[in-house]
C-alpha cells in the first residue's frame, strides 16, 4: 500500500498539522479520528489493513488527519468559550487547508467523503453538512450528533452551529439544503452492543427526514459494540457495497 506522510504549519490553528495519505487513485475518503486520537489512529488499530484491497485496487484514496479535541472539548483546563473558538478554527483548517491539499493531490473533480467513528462521526457529519459545496458525503459510525454531549453544559453560537441536531432543524438556506439533498452518500451507522447509542443515530436520522434529506440509517445488532472490531467491519462493508 502506498503511504505518504506530510505536514505543514497551519495558519488556521497556528500549529504543525500532519496528514497521512494512502493510495494514489480513487475518490477521497477523509478520516477524522475518535476522541483524543491522532492522524495515525486508524492505522494503529488495523482499519487501514481492512481497507487495503480498496486502496490498492484504486477505488479509494484515504487521507487521515488530526483532530484537536485535546486542545478544545477535551481540555479541562481551557475556558469553554475558547474551546468553541478552537473547534471553529479546526473547521477552517479542514475547509481552507485540507480540502485544497486533497484537490492538489488528486483533482478538482475528485469526490470527498468524510468518515469517522465515535466523536469523529460527529465531526465528519458536521463538516459535510456545513460545506456540501466542498464535501460530497459522509460515513458516520457510532456517533451522536449533539455537540452538547461533549461540552459539559457550555452552549454558545459556536456550539449551536457545530451541533447538527441543533442547527439542521433551523436550516432554511435553500441553496445549502439542495446541495445536501443531492448527496447519495449520507450513511449513519451504529452497532447495538456495549457503549453504543443507536437511538442517537435514529434521532438524527429523523431530523434529516424532516428536512427532506435522503440518508441511510443502518443499525447493527447487539453483538457489535462501540469498538474497533465494529468499525473494521462497517467501513469495508460500505466501501464494497455503496461506492
Q: Any overview of this molecule?
A:
This protein has 243 residues and is an alpha/beta fold. The protein has one domain (3-242): 3-Layer(aba) Sandwich (Rossmann fold), CATH 3.40.50.1820. 39% of the residues lie in helices and 20% in strands. It contains nine helices and eight strands. It has helices spanning 41-44, 47-56, 80-104, 119-130, 157-160, 164-167, 174-181, 198-210, 228-242; strands spanning 3-10, 15-22, 27-32, 60-65, 112-117, 137-141, 186-190, 216-219. It has an eight-stranded mixed β-sheet, with helices on both faces. α2 (47-56) packs parallel to α9 (228-242). The chain is globular and about 45 Å long.
| Mean of all residue-level pLDDT scores | 97
- The global form is globular
CATH architecture, please?
3-Layer(aba) Sandwich
The CATH superfamily is Alpha/Beta hydrolase fold, catalytic domain
| Number of alpha- plus pi-helical segments | 9
Low-confidence stretches: none
Binned strand content: 15-25%
The biggest beta sheet is recorded as: 8 strands, mixed
Number of separate structural domains: 1
Structural class computed from helices and strand pairing: alpha/beta
User: What is the total tally of β strands?
Assistant: 8
Q: Under the CATH scheme, which class? A: Alpha Beta
The order of strands across the largest sheet is 1-2-4-3-5-6-7-8
Order of helices and strands: EEEHHEHEHEHHHEHEH
Amino acid at each position: 500500500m502506498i503511504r505518504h506522510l506530510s505536514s505543514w504549519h497551519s495558519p488556521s490553528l497556528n500549529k504543525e498539522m500532519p496528514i497521512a495519505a494512502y493510495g494514489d487513485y480513487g475518490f477521497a475518503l477523509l478520516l477524522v479520528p475518535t476522541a483524543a486520537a491522532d492522524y495515525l489512529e486508524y492505522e494503529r488499530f488495523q482499519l487501514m489493513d481492512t481497507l487495503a484491497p480498496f486502496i490498492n485496487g484504486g477505488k479509494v484514496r484515504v487521507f487521515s488527519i488530526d483532530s484537536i479535541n485535546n486542545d478544545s472539548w477535551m481540555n479541562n483546563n481551557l475556558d469553554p468559550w475558547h474551546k468553541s473558538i478552537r473547534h471553529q478554527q479546526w473547521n477552517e483548517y479542514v475547509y481552507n487547508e485540507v480540502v485544497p491539499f486533497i484537490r492538489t493531490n488528486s483533482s478538482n473533480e475528485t469526490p470527498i467523503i468524510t468518515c469517522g467513528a465515535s466523536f469523529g462521526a460527529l465531526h465528519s457529519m458536521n463538516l459535510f453538512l456545513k460545506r456540501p459545496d466542498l464535501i460530497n458525503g459522509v460515513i458516520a459510525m457510532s456517533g451522536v450528533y449533539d455537540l452538547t454531549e461533549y461540552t459539559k453544559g457550555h452552549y454558545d453560537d459556536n456550539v449551536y452551529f457545530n451541533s447538527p441536531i441543533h442547527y439542521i432543524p433551523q436550516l432554511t438556506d435553500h441553496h445549502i439544503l439542495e446541495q445536501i439533498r443531492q448527496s447519495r452518500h449520507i450513511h449513519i451507522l451504529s452497532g447495538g452492543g456495549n457503549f453504543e447509542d443507536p437511538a442517537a443515530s435514529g434521532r438524527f436520522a429523523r431530523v434529516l427526514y424532516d428536512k427532506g434529506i435522503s440518508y441511510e440509517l443502518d443499525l447493527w445488532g447487539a453483538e457489535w459494540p462501540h469498538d474497533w472490531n465494529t468499525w473494521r467491519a462497517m467501513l469495508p462493508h460500505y466501501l464494497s457495497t455503496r461506492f
